[in-house]
Structure formats: structure tokens, C-alpha cells
Amino acid sequence: MPQFSENLKKLPGVSHVAAIRLLDASGEELGVIENKPGSQGSLAVYNHLAQTYGAITPEAARKGLEMFAEHTEDARANPGKHANIDRLLLIVEEQKTLRTKHVFAV
Known about the structure:
alpha+beta
């Protein structure tokens, strides 16, 4: 199974993205992934999922969990340690979809 660092190399760059806002069905913001150290990998994964699936659907979330590779196992063993992976696990579990809104860097 490929490692997360290998998976990241295959994803489009995100230097043009300042953040991705995550919205529920009613438009309420449930989270933000910013383009800053410590969350750039998550930003790249969520950006790819949003571009590929149009939203963070349960199917997209499953793909994201595969992409996070070894970090997904760590997140399952340590709830709360990886908030962006925990969110994908919850999307799969609850069968919900989050819309995304990109905030572009200027």
C-alpha cells in the first residue's frame, strides 16, 4: 500500500488555494482547511476529492481515507489526533455529504 507522502506527489498542487471551507447541506460551515504547515497535505487531498467528486461524498471520503494511507490507521487508533481524517470517517459512517467552497490565494 502506498504511503501518504507518495500519494501526495500524485495530487495537483494547491499553492493557489488559501483554504477550503466545508459546508453541510444547509450551507453551515463545519470546518476550514487552511493552506498552512501541518494541513497542506489535507488541503491537497480534500482539493482533489472536491475536484474529482464535486463534493465530499461518502464515496469520496472512502477514497480520501485510502489516500491518507498510514495516517488513517493512526486516526482510527487515536480519535481526535487527525481532525481531517476523523471528518472523513464520520462522513462514511453517517453517509452524509459536505459541499466545498474554495478560497483562492491572491
